[in-house]
Amino acid sequence: EAQVTQNPRYLITVTGKKLTVTCSQNMNHEYMSWYRQDPGLGLRQIYYSMNVEVTDKGDVPEGYKVSRKEKRNFPLILESPSPNQTSLYFCAVRRGAHNEQFFGPGTRLTVL
Amino acid sequence: KNQVEQSPQSLIILEGKNCTLQCNYTVSPFSNLRWYKQDTGRGPVSLTIMTFSENTKSNGRYTATLDADTKQSSLHITASQLSDSASYICVVSAGGDYKLSFGAGTTVTVRA
User: Fold this and answer.
1) Which of residues 59 through 88 in chain A touch B, CB cutoff 8 A?
2) Mutate to test the interface with B, among A100, A102, A107, A108 (most CBs of B within 10 A)
3) Chain A residues near residue B44 by CB distance under 8 angstroms
4) Quick one: how far is CA B67 from the chain centroid?
5) What is the signed CA dihedral for B26, B38, A47, A98, rounded to 10 degrees?
6) What is the pLDDT of residues A40-73, one digit of tens each?
7) Of A73, A75, A89, A91, nearest to A24 (Cα)?
8) How do residues B7-24 score in pLDDT, each as one tens digit?
9) For residue range A15-35, what is the model confidence (pLDDT) as tens digits?
């Protein structure tokens, strides 16, 4: 079964405490993305990766880092989280010829 | 700037009734338009996709239409069920670079 897994699913942290949200896929697809979803704003792309060791900024990359050392994993790193990064985060894998995004279950992050 | 606007922002319907959601876009060049369903607390899941040459696509009780000339799409839900309660997101893919533009979504609540 095709899967995108994210961990943790829920996280409450404090300002400035570094954290990593992991994302893993079992579909062997090259293109992966991170999105954040906020009420009224919809989904916005943070970073994407077209393949191993190839990453690029999306629309809202400030305050985030990513890495892609192997095809299946694409972690999202917040070096110094701030309250405005409180959001619902989704990892997604692009599959098929028509750019379908296959989303993970989401990580709800609260930064106090 | 590529934009996708959805209306209404939210709606409430009685079980068994029909409803129609709207999506207007300014994305160019156009590649395809996809509707996603997002249940509360879960990642979005693709419902339908339409390319430039398609003007209607059905998936069970969901029917999507596309007017590429006016850059409008609609999603019609027939004989609504409680399980249709969700957010519906319109996503337009631009040709060439696979850039996605997301609408903010319409929240549908179906009441018994």
Assistant:
1) none
2) A100
3) 43, 90, 101, 103
4) 13
5) -60
6) 888 999 999 999 999 999 999 999 999 999 999 9
7) A73
8) 999 999 999 999 999 999
9) 999 999 999 999 999 999 999
The residue-averaged pLDDT of A81-103 equals 92
CA–CA gap between residue B41 and residue B104 (Å, rounded): 16
Q: What is the DSSP string of A5-26?
A: EEE-SEEEE-TT--EEEEEEES
- Residues of chain B where predicted confidence (pLDDT) is lower than 70: 96-97
- Tell me, yes or no, if A95 comes closer than 8 A to chain B by beta carbon: no
Collapse the DSSP code of B83 into the 3-class scheme (helix H, G, I; strand E, B; otherwise coil) and give the result. helix
Give the nearest partner residue to A103 out of B41, B44, B51, using CB atoms: B44
- Residue B97 has what pLDDT? 63
- Using an 8 Å CB-CB cutoff, list chain B residues near A40: 104
Q: Which residue has the tokens 């989704």?
A: A90
Copy the structure tokens of residue B72: 């409008």
Tell whether B34 lies on the interface with A, counting CB pairs under 8 A. yes
